[in-house]
Amino acid sequence: MPGVPVRDSARVAAEHGCHGLEIRVHPDEEVRLGLPSSRWATVRAQVEDAGLAVACLAGYAAVCAPGPDEPVVAELRALVDLASGLGAPAVRVFPGGVDGDVGRALERIGAVLPDLRDSGVRLLVETHDSHPTGEAALRLVEPFDAPELVAVLWDAVHPWRAGEHPARTRRVLGEHLGYFQLKDVTESDPTPVPPGEGAVPLDECAESLRSWSGWVSLEWERAWYPGISPVPVPLRAARTWFERWCPRP
């Protein structure tokens, strides 16, 4: 819900049976890096007053991005600090590098491990861009052997687009699966459609999640595709999918 205040986003989510709210951290949004700490309690209260938890902060740091380490590490630390202040258990980040590039990410993630441990916040690297499959994303987090601190966010679309079947994604991630983003698209178009109206094998995703307990979040990219339906439309479809499969025990 780009541009929508947190209070209103939380109300819409609650009205559609959600348990939590994933908050986008972006300069165009109410919650952004540099948000004064005096505002943190207010934002957190707005979510809690709707009967929800903050499920995750969606950040845009890229752990494999070319260039010096310091700006990336600083952004990661700022995201972790913000998550801690808002009561979010996790922060989503991207790979954003070159296929097969691992070392740069390991150095940067390693630099913030103490911050993650001290705050209790989990860093989630999304299956995206340079590391779209579960197998590829796992290489960025598995060396730390600390899935409670560093894990993978499984975006339903990208592994499938890259030819990785949902059962394999789930199998290779194992205990390093930290979060699932529900999303659907057609074979030929990246524009999101309500869950169940596209070609992503969401039933197979659900089957593979039966033994897993964690956050399942609808990803609806109106920030990038402003012409798609308002969020209540896909939320209703997402709720139908969730209640049919109940991936969380």
Poorly predicted runs of 5 or more residues: none
The second-level CATH architecture is Alpha-Beta Barrel
Q: Going across the major beta sheet, what is the strand order?
A: 1-2-3-4-5-6-7
**Name of the CATH class:** Alpha Beta
Helix content: 25-40%
Gyration radius over CA: 17 Å
Output the CATH topology.
Answer: TIM Barrel
Q: Topology as H/E string?
A: HEHEHEHEHEHHEHEH
Number of strands: 7
Distance between the termini: 28 Å
- What structural class should be given to the helix and strand makeup? alpha/beta
Q: What is the overall number of helices?
A: 9
Write down the domain tally: 1
GO molecular function: isomerase activity
Keywords: Isomerase
Pfam families: AP_endonuc_2
Protein name: Xylose isomerase
Give structural notes:
- With 249 residues, the chain is an alpha/beta fold.
- The chain has one domain: TIM Barrel (Alpha-Beta Barrel), CATH 3.20.20.150.
- The chain contains nine helices and seven strands; from the N terminus they run αβαβαβαβαβααβαβα.
- The chain has helices at 6-15, 40-49, 69-86, 103-119, 134-141, 157-161, 166-173, 202-208, 232-245; strands at residues 20-24, 53-62, 90-94, 122-126, 150-155, 177-182, 216-218.
- The chain has a seven-stranded parallel beta sheet with strand order 1-2-3-4-5-6-7.
- β1, α2 (40-49) and β2 (53-62) form a beta-alpha-beta unit.
- α3 runs parallel beside α4 (103-119).
- It is globular, with a radius of gyration of 17 Å.
- It starts with 5 loop residues before the first helix and ends with a helix.
- InterPro entries: IolE/XylAMocC-like, Xyl_isomerase-like_sf, Xyl_isomerase-like_TIM-brl.
- Keywords: Isomerase.
